[in-house]
Amino acid sequence: MTVTDTAARIARGQRPAGVRSPAAAPALHHVLHEHRPLVSVRDLQVAYGDGPLVLDGIDLDLHPGEMVALLGSSGSGKSTLMKALTGFAPIGAGTVRVGVHDLTRLHRGELRRVRAQVGQVFQQFNLVGRLSVLTNVLTGGLHDAGAINLAGGFSSSHRRRALELLDRVGIAHKAKDEARSLSGGQQQRVAIARALMQRPTLILADEPVASLDPKMSCTVLELLHGITRDEGIPVLVSLHVMPLALAHSHRIVGLRDGRVLVSAPTAQLSAADLEPIYANDHESGAGHGDDDA
Ligand SMILES: Nc1ncnc2c1ncn2[C@@H]1O[C@H](COP(=O)(O)OP(=O)(O)OP(=O)(O)O)[C@@H](O)[C@H]1O
């Protein structure tokens, strides 16, 4: 069991393997130190221009080894919260700590370096369609200057890693194909491989399955879950379908009108507990997954 595994067990509220009684815990203080959340948001307020607050007093922690599902009606602030975690939202008050950095205090250059450590996955995949699948994955390592050799190509070690990642997401046989020739689910898996190419410390997935059929939605979420489990990388994933959140997360955070309404381990939640997130929401009709899950 690695330190990351151990931190993940602690994050899930489990006792680390080999620790039989609380008396043994002090010896693990270094591990507990690692148990500190990777992301810590406190009392976050965001407003666009002179508009109303779209996030109002948000607290959020993301620990190593946990996949957190973000639920909420359309306009509740999910994407804005994701943007705040990469310093792209107009933060009015509060703190957003990622690793040792408080994003609200960083200069642009420092912010760019933090962003390079955050792998992002979007609903529309954001691949370059006419480039090969392999090249799309390789672009995930572009922030690392060593990835490109003097001849203008990618180094062989980066190509090897990109192929390994494509293998991991089950799509290595498509490496030479144009990205635009792939199905939506395949493209999303390429996008995940590209995010992993960054060697991210955190993955943000903003509605990554909104364009996918139910079976492929599960495949993609299981893939993200496996990354959290095997490598300890925390994943924050926004979802519109409540059953998917209940099936594929360690914890659920529910937003309503820019505030946290629910925040609890998924194992302690039922669909009924999540209903208030969508109460009187006639616009999106989201959450239940009757039609789309
Ligand atoms: N760039 C912007 N300028 C002004 N208002 C914005 C901007 N981006 C988002 N908003 C507003 O902020 C609020 C929250 O939007 P946000 O996109 O974060 O919600 P969401 O929960 O992600 O919605 P959806 O599920 O529809 O994607 C909405 O009222 C939206 O209109």
TrEMBL record:
Pfam families registered for this protein in UniProt:
ABC_tran
Q: Which parts of the sequence are annotated with region: Disordered?
A: 1-22
Membrane-crossing residue ranges in chain numbering = none
GO MF entry, a single one = ATP hydrolysis activity
Q: Tell me which UniProt keywords the record has, alphabetically.
A: ATP-binding, Cell membrane, Membrane, Nucleotide-binding, Translocase, Transport
Name the SMART domains for this protein.
Answer: AAA
Q: Which domain of life is it from?
A: Bacteria
Q: Where is the ABC transporter domain?
A: 39-282
What is the name of this protein?
Answer: Phosphate-import ATP-binding protein PhnC
Species of the source: Agrococcus baldri
Which gene does this sequence derive from? Answer: phnC
